[in-house]
């Protein structure tokens, strides 16, 4: 585990029309007792990025194995892609393609649903988490430059956020703000007006797993701890699950009622019910 932390954090400075309302949806209840995660599948080799496609297939980037596995809605697991170098972030695009960051080669790959691979972006600096913004642009946590980058329609890289502290994951919130997980410096909420709130005080080491529900609730894994935490509008956070061994991947399930988290420490994927 410590080798992964050093890899992510050690080299320098690790997925529109604005609307009113808070950038992060507030839960309907106060701090609830953390849930006990339900074990779904084991035997993964350092799972990191996870995403579902429109058909309900779950894709999992396995860092140490250099592959992406696919789990169909019936629970059958197959290898979707292999021969990769340090696959980390993973996101499924609006076009149905699967995008995978190669942390070791500073590239992003695009896979068709049939598994055909092409190089989508080069010239990065240890890309970690991937996501898509509200206009359909691919967002990249470019760890070594302390930036969140967006891939434009022409394939260029455009800085979206600068001056972060080793970013490894990000999502854009419904009002065009952002929540960024920094493995070297907590969780940053960026308001649409440019104001920043640091929300990672309760985290040991935030990891690449950042997930957002359709109504704007944001959850972040504590890779340096055992919890998954919800980021609240005031910059506080609450644990929604505890007992995980270094959770690193995170995704909202298709049912919208639960999260799936991948734990680095035991190579297992867990289900976590979403609290109200």
How would you describe the shape? globular
Structural class: mainly beta
Strand ordering within the main sheet: 1-24-23-22
Beta-strand fraction estimate: over 45%
Q: Look at the structure and give the mean pLDDT.
A: 90
Sheet with the most strands, sense and barrel status: 4 strands, antiparallel
Low-pLDDT residue intervals, each spanning 5 or more residues: 1-6, 9-21
| Helix coverage percent | under 10%
Instruction: State the end-to-end CA separation.
Output: 32 Å
Order of helices and strands: HEEEEEEEEEEEEEEEEEEEEEEEE
Q: Please report the number of helical segments.
A: 1
Multimer state: single chain
Describe the protein in words.
This protein has one helix spanning 2-9, and strands at 38-41, 47-52, 58-62, 67-71, 77-81, 87-92, 98-102, 107-111, 117-121, 127-132, 138-142, 147-151, 157-161, 167-172, 178-182, 186-190, 196-198, 206-212, 218-222, 227-231, 237-242, 247-252, 258-263, 268-273. The chain is an all-beta fold and 276 residues long. The protein is globular. The protein is 3% helix and 46% strand. The longest helix has 8 residues, at 2-9. It contains 1 helix and 24 strands.
């Amino acid at each position: 585990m410590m080798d992964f932390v050093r890899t992510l954090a050690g080299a320098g400075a690790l997925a529109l029309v604005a609307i009113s309302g808070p950038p992060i949806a507030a839960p309907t209840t106060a701090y609830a007792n953390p849930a006990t995660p339900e074990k779904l599948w084991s035997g993964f080799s350092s799972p990191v990025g996870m995403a579902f496609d429109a058909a309900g297939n779950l894709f999992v980037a396995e860092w140490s194995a250099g592959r992406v596995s696919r789990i169909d809605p019936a629970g059958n697991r197959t290898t979707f892609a292999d021969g990769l170098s340090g696959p980390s972030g993973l996101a499924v695009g609006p076009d149905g393609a699967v995008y995978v960051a190669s942390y070791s080669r500073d590239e992003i790959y695009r896979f068709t649903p049939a598994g055909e691979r092409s190089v989508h972006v080069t010239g990065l600096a240890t890309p970690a988490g991937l996501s898509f913004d509200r206009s359909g642009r691919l967002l990249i946590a470019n760890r070594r430059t302390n930036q969140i980058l967006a891939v434009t329609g022409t394939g260029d890289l455009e800085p979206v956020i600068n001056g972060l502290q080793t970013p490894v994951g990000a999502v854009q919130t419904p009002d065009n703000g952002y929540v960024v997980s920094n493995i070297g410096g907590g969780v940053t909420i960026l308001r649409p007006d440019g104001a920043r709130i640091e929300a990672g005080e309760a985290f040991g080491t935030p990891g690449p797993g950042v997930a957002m529900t359709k109504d704007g609730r944001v959850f972040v894994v504590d890779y340096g701890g055992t919890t998954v935490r919800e980021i609240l509008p005031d910059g506080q956070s609450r644990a929604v699950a505890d007992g995980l061994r270094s959770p690193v991947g995170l995704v909202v399930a298709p049912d919208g009622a639960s999260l799936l988290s991948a734990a680095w420490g035991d190579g297992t994927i867990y289900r976590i019910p979403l609290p109200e």
